[in-house]
Amino acid sequence: MKKILLVVALFATCTFSNLHAQQGKYGHVNSQEIMANMPGVDSIRMSLETFQVELQQIYEGYMSQYQKMVEKFEAEVGVMSQAVRQIREKEITKLEEQIQEFQYSVQDLLEQRQVELTMPFQEKIQKAVNAVAEENNYSYLFDTQVLLYSDGGTDVTPLVKKKLEIK
Predict the structure, then answer these.
(1) Is the CB of residue 132 less than 8 Å from the CB of residue 159?
(2) pTM for the predicted model, two decimal places
């Protein structure tokens, strides 16, 4: 009888220990707040603004070239042969298409540059989050930017900031 009680007690202890271990420890972190306070993050905004100015200059170059081409065409249309007229119209159409392609690609270019510039900061944040999770035995850490509901858990943002030496 004692052996049966001992086996049952041992089984219950293992089961409850296993359930507790499976529940784990949950926390959340505000990566956007951390990113905003990281040293050097202002350089992202400045680099993006510089890149936008460069793209604007390219666009203005296209438009200047287009305007000159159209003005020259309009000035000479009365004296040019049909063959030359067709060639010039094709050149204008080709330039219009290039301008449209450039306009469509600007947003993608800006997004690519932003990803490129933020990646090193995001990698630092991720390493710090991983370290905090391991050091404090968290099973799961969620980002508050995508967390739809939270009734508890621990905000580990201060710990991650400390790890990154952010005040």
Answers:
(1) yes
(2) 0.66
